[in-house]
Design a protein that fits this description.
By secondary structure, the chain is an alpha/beta fold. Helices cover 38% and strands 21% of the residues. Keywords: Signal.
């Protein structure tokens, strides 16, 4: 008989009247790194294709260990910038996210500022056109790569731009205390190195934060103090910093990297409560680092360094965070509830280089989106969706020929994720949980976690109530040892996966048909028929994509056959002349994409700016 364990998720600590009062104030923002692989004359390449992220024995080891990428570009090669940001916002809103916090890097890449401005303005433009209930703030992230004397002027320039452009008075700005919100992040880089070293050693009686606040205030003062500042703590456990911050700013944020240090988060919360300041919390789930660590020196090395010095695979490793499947994510929401944080920042929306994006994607699973939605609903005191989640960590072959991964941050039992599968249920009434068509147990209403031992093979789970199936999951992949890769990836599946996929297919199919129909002007009936073919193509592609991990040749044969069938259907739909034009346009789009990506190094530009150079 299998052993299983049930964990009751956090209880609501506030009374119902208090929750009702606070609900309208609670907001969830996802950090958005305004990353688009784009070529302005050819449109936006929203994501890379599957050939860039799936294993191939013909690739050098470095390319084989690139992280998995979202599947969006496999389904629709290019979008306009407006279409791309529209897709981002629609995806976020379906997850219960209230807005984006644009991470504006103040760094040596000064030439990117104009591009960041254009992309941010595109979000505002689409939000206003569609009247989305969605808002934005900007996170100024100060990087050490920018010359110290230029960091404040750069930040002033950014805020001056957004205080005078055509969206400066937009209703889509996130506001606190009646002012637009700016988050200051990595503020330690507004302190000179020698000065910072001294501060690290000083006690609370001596340390002086005033010069730092003067620099921050100088940025806002250049706009006539139009912005409400959310300050990110350098040392969240130091009382002196929080007391001094409280003299200037009402909202104080803790970095997500501290989330797993429960004692520190509790101390931070108490210090804020004593100062009567607002807790802005940050949450992240498991992530893989963007850098390598050189074993001989124990130094972090960017991809460019590894390539330049041609380091063998056994001389470097990568780090990752082991937050015990969904435990870390749930911990963040529990802390936000316990310590009454009205603002949450999710790390992050589309930092796909680090592999920690919250965007739905094939390899991490669409279930992460729905899980965040349900946790957000619970945190806000809203009625939760009925749903079920199936979460496990992929096991990979350990081989010296493959890149090694080591744990950077650990929360909970280090063996939990390796030895367990989580089944999370969100129900309104008592229901029966079935695993592989056998009754496992009865689950209570609300959010519950059941763990079962890790096992290989095809596993299906279902929730039944009064003999009716109310939720079910049949994972796309079998659970098995991966021989090709060694990444410690966590997979999230949910009973809503198919719904997410269908909604994505519908939106992307409409974009594809609209792109071509500008030339053809087909009648409505034919456009709808074409849209159905596009959705079928996308659905079939997702179904066979899982083959690539286990049988590359079978994937290629199956995908080729599906493509031929799809093209025949389009051939019958269009006239011969239009069909030739369609094929030419397809080839043109593919050529642009291949040309754009040919010499593109995804790790260039500080391992964060995944953007093509302007043409």
């Amino acid at each position: 008989m299998r052993k299983f364990k049930t964990t009751f998720l956090f209880t609501l600590l506030l009374s119902i009247p208090l929750l009702t009062q606070a609900n309208s104030e609670k907001k969830v923002f996802a950090f958005n790194n305004i990353l688009f692989i784009n070529s302005p004359s050819k449109g936006v390449l929203p994501r890379l294709t599957h050939n860039n992220y799936l294993y191939s024995s013909e690739k050098p080891w470095l390319n084989n260990n690139e992280l998995y990428y979202p599947v969006i570009a496999d389904l629709a090669n290019q979008m306009s910038l407006k279409d791309a940001v529209d897709f981002e916002m629609q995806s976020a809103m379906k997850m219960g996210i209230d807005g984006f916090s644009f991470v504006y890097m103040i760094s040596e890449n000064y030439s990117f500022y104009q591009r960041f401005n254009e992309i941010i303005e595109a979000y505002f433009e689409v939000a206003e056109e569609k009247n989305y209930p969605f808002s934005f703030n900007i996170t100024l992230k100060f990087e050490p790569t920018r010359q110290f004397s230029e960091r404040i002027p750069d930040a002033q320039e950014v805020l001056n731009y957004f205080s005078t452009n055509k969206y400066s008075a937009s209703k889509h700005w996130h506001k606190e205390n009646g002012k637009k919100v700016i988050v200051f992040s990595k503020v330690k880089n507004l302190i000179e190195k020698e000065e910072f070293k001294k501060m690290e050693k000083q006690n609370d009686q001596i340390i002086n934060f005033q010069p730092l606040f003067e620099r921050i205030n100088a940025v806002n003062a250049s706009t006539g103090n139009q912005f409400n500042i959310i300050y990110t703590c350098i040392w969240p456990g130091r009382k002196k910093e929080i007391v001094d911050v409280g003299k200037h700013y009402d909202h104080i944020r803790i970095e997500a990297l501290h989330m797993s240090n429960t004692a520190l988060v509790e101390r931070f919360s108490k210090l804020l409560e004593e100062s009567n300041k607002v807790f802005a919390h940050s949450i992240y789930h498991e992530q893989i680092s963007s850098y390598f660590v050189e074993k001989s020196t124990n130094k972090k090395r960017p991809n460019g360094f590894v390539k330049k010095h041609n380091l063998p695979i056994d001389q470097v490793y990568k780090e990752y965070d082991n937050l015990s499947l969904s435990k870390g994510l749930r911990l963040g929401f529990e802390q936000a509830q316990k310590y009454k944080a009205p603002i949450l920042f999710l790390n992050s929306w589309n930092m796909f280089i680090e592999g920690n994006h919250i965007r739905p994607d094939y390899h991490h699973g669409y279930g992460l989106s729905e899980l965040i939605k349900v946790l957000t609903q619970q945190w806000k005191g809203q009625e939760m969706d009925e749903a079920m989640f199936f979460i496990y960590r992929k096991k990979s072959l350990v081989d010296k020929k493959m890149l090694e991964y080591k744990v950077r941050k650990q929360y909970g039992d280090p063996n939990y994720g390796r030895d367990s599968i989580e089944i999370i249920t969100s129900t309104k009434k008592v229901s029966a949980l079935y695993v592989n068509n056998k009754l496992l147990k009865s689950v209570n209403p609300g959010l519950q976690v059941t763990t079962i031992p890790y096992q290989d093979g095809k596993i299906n789970v279902a929730l039944k109530r009064e003999k009716n199936i109310i939720a079910s999951i049949t994972p796309l992949n079998e659970i098995r040892l991966l021989k090709n890769r060694s990444e410690p990836t966590v997979v999230y599946r949910s009973s809503h996966d198919q719904k997410y996929l269908e909604e994505m297919y519908d939106l992307l199919a409409q974009n594809e048909v609209s792109f071509y129909d500008m030339r053809f002007l087909l009648p409505h009936e034919k456009k709808e028929e074409w849209k159905a073919y596009e959705k079928e193509r996308m659905s079939l592609f997702i179904k066979v994509l899982s083959l690539y991990e286990y049988d590359k040749s079978l994937f290629e044969v199956t995908n080729y056959k599906n493509t031929l069938k799809y093209e025949k259907k389009i051939g019958k739909l269009l006239s011969d002349e239009y069909y030739r034009v369609w094929k030419d346009l397809q080839r043109e789009k593919l050529k642009y994409q291949k040309t754009a990506m040919k010499d593109f190094n995804i790790y260039d530009l500080n391992n964060s700016y995944n953007v093509l150079e302007m043409e």
